[in-house]
Amino acid sequence: MFLVTFYSICILSCYAGILPSGTQNSHKARVLDLPLSQQEHFTDTNHDEKVEHNTAYDHEAFLGVEEAKKFEKLSVEESTKRLGALFDRIDKDHNGTVTKQELKDWIKSVQTRYITDDVERQWKQMNNDSNNAISWDEYDKTTYYALYDNTPEPDQVTEQYLRLQKKDRRRFTKADEDGNGSLNKNEFADFIHPEQSPRMKDLVITETIEDMDANKDGFISLEEFLHDIWDSTENNNTVEPEWVQTERENFLAYRDLDHDKKLNRKEVELWLMPVDYDNIEAETSHLFREADKDQDNQLTKEEILDKHDVFVGSQATDWGAELRVHQDL
Ligand SMILES: *[C@@H]1O[C@H](CO)[C@@H](O)[C@H](O)[C@H]1NC(C)=O
Ligand SMILES: *[C@@H]1O[C@H](CO)[C@@H](O)[C@H](O)[C@H]1NC(C)=O
Ligand SMILES: *[C@@H]1O[C@H](CO)[C@@H](O)[C@H](O)[C@H]1NC(C)=O
Ligand SMILES: *[C@@H]1O[C@H](CO)[C@@H](O)[C@H](O)[C@H]1NC(C)=O
């Protein structure tokens, strides 16, 4: 039932490690509505409607991936203590209870934190002359010239760089909202994380199709779609993993709405930017169902600490999981 495939099983492969910015990022997450976590929220164990809840998902949604890893290493006492401290930050108006809105805002801020951090980091790195705008020349120099060691020789200007540079130029122009040739920090954020910006939507769709459309017919076929997520050559022609088969079925059942075995722009848009599912809302409701003991639509610190295993992990819960695995064997 829970066919919310958080698609952005990040597609990191392509240019990772080659380029510091812009274009590279489009490969990281193809879905605009970022997943709260890289985990599936529910594991559909077998097909008799038995759905197992994945606690790692909740921990990552509530803490962020990096923090969740840190909490796992803590003792129960320490992780509960830190959760108590977090409560005071989530309870924005400091009146002793967390409302649904406060929890939603928190999860949202966890979700966008990595983007704001990334924008800050790249802004500092690119903005060499430290004014409050980045011109195309400045971006071009730090990104592409730097790659050629500041001495672009014709033979070093590979086709791939030229293609990426051209793509970045187009995206830069689109991000430059006031069209004055330089990006301020907000425009720069749209440039390096267009997936977060409604006005970049059309371009994101175009770029995604261009990236995946091997035969250049303007559509993403089933084969092109699957090749993008799992390249059999790269995987030495090993047996296709089961999740690829699941993706194939999902493509045919849910993404290819007009059943012509390829995605057009509208279908790509609905895939990248699903309109029917608000994962922050869903996660908030889920956490309330777990923790709101007296069902008054507010969480007290006691209610949250009582369910610390739902919100955060700790060493003891991991041992518990391990015990269960051994019992299953
Ligand atoms: C805290 O404030 C919320 C509204 O922000 C309110 O609904 C709730 O009743 C308040 N809780 C307490 C304990 O005052
Ligand atoms: C930044 O500017 C300084 C001085 O203008 C220059 O020496 C340096 O190479 C520049 N760094 C980059 C990454 O362009
Ligand atoms: C372009 O506008 C930004 C603000 O959006 C400003 O900081 C920058 O100086 C302007 N650049 C030019 C070349 O006018
Ligand atoms: C494919 O084979 C090569 C050479 O044997 C190996 O280095 C590489 O790790 C393999 N890739 C995968 C995904 O198994």
Describe this structure in words.
By secondary structure, this protein is mainly α. The chain has one domain (2-219, 264-328). 54% of the residues lie in helices and 6% in strands. It contains 16 helices and eight strands. The chain has helices at 22-25, 55-63, 65-72, 76-90, 100-126, 136-147, 159-175, 185-192, 201-212, 222-229, 242-255, 265-272, 279-291, 301-306, 308-311, 315-328; strands spanning 42-44, 51-53, 97-99, 134-135, 182-183, 220-221, 262-263, 298-300. Strands 1-2 form a two-stranded antiparallel sheet. A hairpin with a 6-residue loop joins strand 1 and strand 2 (51-53). Helix 5 (100-126) packs across helix 8 (185-192), helix 9 crosses helix 12 and helix 10 (222-229) runs antiparallel to helix 11. It is globular and about 65 Å long. The model is unreliable at 1-34, 44-51 and 317-329 (pLDDT under 50). The structure holds 2-acetamido-2-deoxy-beta-D-glucopyranose (4 copies). One 2-acetamido-2-deoxy-beta-D-glucopyranose binds next to helix 6.
